[in-house]
C-alpha cells in the first residue's frame, strides 16, 4: 500500500478498497504494513495518534476481521499513552473482532536524518501470538536488523515470523538480505511486508514485499511499487520435519563470551 502522508481517513478508504479488491473472505490472517494510517513521515505521527480505548483504527480493523472471518495483524498505527508517550503499535485482532494482543516497535529508526526516537517511545518486549495454533512472532521494520529478537521468538517456539515495514528504497540489499536471513537462520516462514510509494520529494518506500519459506525461498511476492495483496497457503508439516533433521537449535551455546587477546608489543 502507498499511504497518503498525514491523511488517516484517505488511508482508511484506500485500505478497505484494496482488501475488498484483492483479499478473499475466510483467509486465516491479513497482514498490513507499518504506519499505513499516516505514512512514514515522523512529524505527522503525533497528530494521527489514538488512545487504544478509543481508536478509529482498531474499530476499522475489527470490522475487517469480522467481515472476512480472519485474524488481522494491523501493521501499525501511532498509539497515544499520554501527552509524553507515543508507541508505534501493531494491533492483533482475532476472527471475532476482539483485540487479543499488541506489539510496539522495540527498535526505533533514527539514523541518516530519520528521527523516530524524537516522537516514539520503544516497546518493552517482543510479543508472540497464537494464530490457530501457529506461534507467530511480531516485528516492525527496523527490528529486522536485530537478529536477537527473532532468535528469541524461535527459542519460544515461533513457526511464523512477521516484519511489517515502511522500508526506504535506497536500502534494497539490507531489506532483501536481512528478511531472507531471518527465515533461514530460524527455520521459520517469514512475512516481510513493506509500503510502496513516495514518502517525500526525494524519498520512496521500496515497494517489494515477500513471503519466504523456512529455507529462504521466495514463495510469494509483490514488487515494482504495486499496491495490492500477495498471498500463499502454508503447510507447516514440512518445516517441522526439517527442524527434526537440521537441529541447529541444539547447537546454540549458552554463552558467547568473547575472549580478547590484546597484542603485546
Note the run of SSEs as H and E: HEHHEEEEHEEHEHEEEEEH
- Count helical runs: 7
How does CATH name the architecture? 4-Layer Sandwich
Which strand order does the major sheet show?
6-7-8-9-12-13
Task: Give the CATH superfamily.
Answer: Carbon-nitrogen hydrolase
SS-based structural class? Answer: alpha+beta
Share of β-strand residues: 15-25%
Assembly type: single chain
Mean pLDDT across all amino acids? 95
Q: Taking Cα atoms only, what radius of gyration do you get, to the nearest Å?
A: 19 Å
CATH topology, by name, is Nitrilase/N-carbamoyl-D-aminoacid amidohydrolase
Span of the ends, CA to CA: 59 Å
The amount of helix comes to 25-40%
How many strand units? Answer: 13
| Unreliably modeled segments | none
Total number of domains = 1
Question: Can you identify the CATH class?
Answer: Alpha Beta
Overall body shape: globular
Write the layout of secondary structure elements.
Layout (H helix, E strand, L loop, with lengths): L7 H15 L6 E3 L13 H4 L7 H13 L2 E3 L3 E6 L2 E9 L5 E6 L11 H4 L7 E5 L2 E7 L6 H9 L4 E6 L6 H15 L2 E6 L3 E3 L2 E2 L4 E4 L5 E5 L14 H9 L20
Parallel strand pairs: 1-2, 7-8, 8-9
Antiparallel strand pairs: 2-4, 3-4, 4-5, 6-7, 9-12, 10-11, 12-13
Amino acid at each position: 500500500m502507498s499511504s497518503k502522508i498525514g491523511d488517516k481517513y484517505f488511508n482508511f478508504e484506500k485500505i478497505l478498497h484494496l482488501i475488498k479488491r484483492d483479499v478473499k473472505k475466510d483467509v486465516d490472517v491479513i497482514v498490513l504494513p507499518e504506519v499505513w494510517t499516516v505514512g512514514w513521515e515522523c512529524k505527522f505521527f503525533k497528530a494521527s495518534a489514538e488512545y487504544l480505548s478509543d481508536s478509529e483504527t482498531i474499530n476499522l480493523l475489527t470490522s475487517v476481521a469480522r467481515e472476512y472471518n480472519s485474524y488481522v495483524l494491523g501493521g501499525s498505527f501511532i498509539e497515544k499513552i499520554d501527552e509524553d508517550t507515543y508507541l508505534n503499535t501493531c494491533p492483533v485482532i482475532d476472527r471475532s473482532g476482539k483485540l487479543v494482543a499488541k506489539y510496539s516497535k522495540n527498535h526505533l529508526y533514527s539514523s541518516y536524518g530519520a528521527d523516530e526516537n524524537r516522537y516514539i517511545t520503544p516497546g518493552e518486549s517482543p510479543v508472540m501470538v497464537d494464530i490457530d495454533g501457529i506461534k507467530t512472532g511480531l516485528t516492525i521494520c527496523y527490528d529486522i536488523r536485530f537478529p536477537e529478537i527473532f532468535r528469541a521468538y524461535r527459542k519460544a517456539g515461533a513457526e511464523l515470523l512477521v516484519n511489517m515495514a515502511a522500508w526506504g528504497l535506497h536500502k534494497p540489499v539490507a531489506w532483501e538480505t536481512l528478511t531472507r536471513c531471518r527465515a533461514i537462520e530460524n527455520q521459520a516462514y517469514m512475512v516481510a511486508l513493506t509500503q510502496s510509494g513516495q514518502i517525500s520529494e526525494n524519498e520512496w518506500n521500496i515497494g517489494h514485499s515477500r513471503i519466504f519459506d523456512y529455507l529462504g525461498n521466495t514463495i510469494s511476492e509483490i514488487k515494482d511499487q504495486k499496491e495490492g495483496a500477495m498471498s500463499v497457503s502454508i503447510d507447516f508439516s514440512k518445516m517441522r520435519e526439517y527442524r527434526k533433521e537440521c537441529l541447529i537449535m541444539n547447537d546454540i551455546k549458552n554463552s558467547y563470551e568473547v575472549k580478547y587477546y590484546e597484542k603485546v608489543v
